Amino acid sequence: MSHLSPISLIDLTKDVENMHQVNDENLIVGISNEYLDHGDQDVVCQTCRAKLWRNESIRGKEKGNMDYSLCCAYDKFQLPDLKNAPPTYERMFRNMDSKSKHFMKNIRRYNSMFSFTSMGGKIDSSINRGNAPYILRLGGQNYHSIGSLLPAKGSEPKFSQLYIMTLTTKLKIDKDDQSTSIDSDIIEDIKVMLDSNNVFVRSHRMVRDTFQKNPEVDMKLQLIGRREQDGKTYNLPTAYEVVALIIGDISDSIEKRDIVVQTKNGSLQRINELHPSYLPLQYPLLFPYGDDGYSVDILHRGVSFTTDNKRAKCTMREYFAYRIQDRDHSFSLILNSRRLFQQFLVDAYTMMETERLYYIRRQQHVLRCDSYENLRNQKAQGTPDISNVGQHVILPSSFTGGARYMLQNYLDVMSLCKWFGYPDFFITFTCNPKWPEIKRFLKDTSLQPEDRPDILCRLKGESNFRQSLPHSHICLFMHSDNKLSTVELIDSIISAEIPDRIEDPELYSLVNEFMIYGPCGAENMNCPCMMDKKCSKNFPKQFYNHSSVGQNGFPLYRRRNDGHFVEKSSVRLDNRNVVPYNKYLLKRYQKHINIEWCNQGSSIKYLFKYINKGPDRATVVVVPTNNECENNDVVDEIA
Fold first, then answer.
1. N or C end of the chain: which has fewer CB within 10 A?
2. 269, 146 in Cβ contact below 8 A?
3. 548-549 and 555-556 as β-strands: parallel, antiparallel, unpaired?
4. What's phi and psi for 626, nearest 5 deg?
């Protein structure tokens, strides 16, 4: 901190002191007075009016800067505001009456009913078992498809086909059928609202009217990909700008980015996520007017199309980072859509990954996937066609989560072990939705913590311990002077026992709240951890009077049979059910913080593999081909 002036040091000290001044009414039950509070969203970006926490505002540039990196990239770009939703429709997101509660609980289903397109990923609903908060988990490759204008003969309508039917006849829903979980009045309200305001619904109304006049006409709907207006300042397209009706054959003027919806087609057509109409087509309830989504034509400030600048355009990551900010002058349907917001975020992430993979595929010539020497050797061996020999599509180590990324990270951290010695502690942090910052943020809303995962992931402290939330794994290397030289010293850092309720009531409450595992086993056979009638985490542990290291290299912590217990679900749990913790960290950050001693060679590789574990991969791919001469040695790491 030598580069800071004395005044800056004083201001920084005051900031840290203010973080500790928390009203008792905002404290979590059983919270320690040592808890580090991070205040509220009281900093406003002067460029885009985004609201930030103070710690977010002082990172990156000199303190005193009035625009920030998280929202508008230091005034690098600005997107137009989304048009305010119709008042009666907005009240559905704000009110707490029974109708609004039903709508918000089933908002993903209602959005699917009115969506023009589909998500191709597989929703995994098995994770939403028990009483845990709702989570949207998507498996497999995500892609987006749109159906034809009319269903093929004898088939059910799909997506845009449903819109033609919805605009023509009123949907009939049996209110007594509880399995549908939908309300016909809400459907009618949404239908009227979209029919009055949405540019794409008006376009389909035009298609409907044409079909009613001439049912046999061969008509196509062209979704135009290029806008006439600047995406930085103009966001609400008109009907003629987003679609065009095509009678008969497709003309040569169709651009590659345009989407042409056929009259009748038995299959779904995949659409490009870079199309500016993708988001309003997929999320009509979040974009009721059909506002443009992301477009590759959005330029940074002060940049023109003729500027020779590699980073002249707004990236998809920048677009979504801008859109998911709370701002002091508007109400965001996106941020208040609960479960649909979760889907929106998952969809946004897969869209960004798709864009990055597409960029990598276009840069294969730069990666020099094969050498001339190898091709010459193949020619010398008599290979008749060397056009596909050694063809290899590379996924470089710069792509997060790829095989090379994982391998490079592992090699890097093992090099650290060679230089600094083995890491001493393996720490797992899990978010606490009852943090005072979160409770104050949601105080005047009807939202639950899981409805704003973006906020849970943004709460970061100045300490190295509080990393990306709601879940993080940290390997901590201690200085050589502070390493634990013997097993006996473990007890001074790590505890796996319930504290005395009289001597330290605060710590007792925190351990009771965050560090007790179970009940499981015979007391709760339905616990998610149970596999083959045994706890997969090996709880309850055994009693030990002293800490030691087991044969597999993992520590066995002191768990004395001292009579201390807590009660969970009418079951008494003792030290055998305590997750190892550090007293200081538990009081400081008040959440589930599991800390393990790992200064043993046999456990290092496992720990780094656990930290850097990658996504699931397909191990077998069956590719049909009619070309017997096709070279099957081609390796496509991106696929």
1. N
2. yes
3. antiparallel
4. -105, 0
Q: How far is CA 148 from CA 60, 163, 264, 269, 279, in A?
A: 48, 11, 5, 8, 18
CB-CB contact of 30 with 510 (8 Å): yes
- Please, what is the Cα angle at 203 between 200 and 206, to 5 degrees? 155
Q: How far is CA 435 from CA 2, 272, 444, 457, 589, in A?
A: 33, 40, 16, 13, 9
Alpha-carbon span 275 to 527, nearest angstrom: 45
How many CB atoms are located within 10 Å of the residue 319 CB? 21
Asked if residue 540 lies in contact with residue 577, where contact means CB atoms within 8 angstroms, the answer is yes
Hunting for tokens 């907005």 — which residue is that?
90
Question: Nearest CA to 99 among 187, 180, 178?
Answer: 187
Quote the pTM value. 0.80
Average pLDDT score over the chain: 77
Does residue 540 have a cis peptide bond before it, meaning omega lies within 30 degrees of 0? yes
Portion of the chain with pLDDT greater than 90, in percent:
25
What sign for the dihedral angle of Cα 362, 364, 367, 373?
A: negative
Q: Is the dihedral of CA 242, 246, 252, 256 positive or negative?
A: positive
- Please give the structure tokens belonging to residue 142: 């995500």
**How confident is the model over 58-96, as pLDDT tens digits?**
655 555 567 788 888 888 888 888 999 999 999 999 888
Lookup: tokens for 427: 């720490």
**Tokens for 301?**
């400030």
Rounded Cα distance, 147 and 264, in Å: 9
What one-letter code names the amino acid at 192?
Answer: V
Whether pLDDT at 333 is above 80? yes
Both structure tokens of 442: 């949601």
DSSP 8-class letter at 341: H
Helix/strand/coil for 153: coil
Q: What is the dihedral of CA 244, 248, 249, 254, to 10 degrees?
A: 0
Phi, psi of 222 (to 5 degrees): -95, 120
* Cα dihedral sign, 322-328-330-335: positive
Contacts of 301 by beta carbon, 8 Å cutoff, 6+ apart? 75, 76, 77, 78, 232
Residues in contact with 295: Cβ distance below 8 Å, sequence separation at least 6, in sequence order = 227, 231, 274, 276
- Provide the pairing of β-strand 138-139 with 122-123: antiparallel
- Other C-beta atoms within 10 Å of 533: how many? 8
Whether 437 contacts 477, CB under 8 Å? no
Answer left, alpha or beta for residue 538, where phi above 0 means left and psi between -120 and 50 means alpha.
left
Question: Looking at residue 99, what DSSP letter applies?
Answer: H
Sign, Cα dihedral of 327, 330, 336, 342: negative
Is the torsion defined by CA of 325, 331, 335, 341 positive or negative?
negative
Query: So where are the chain's domains?
Result: 98-358, 403-431+470-611
Most confident of 326-330, 478-482, 519-523, 561-565: 561-565
Amino acid of residue 22: V
601-622 per-position pLDDT tens digit: 656 666 666 666 655 555 555 5
- Measured distance CA(192)–CA(206) in Å, rounded: 16
β-bridge partners, 118:
145
- Token pair in block for residue 291: 């506002």
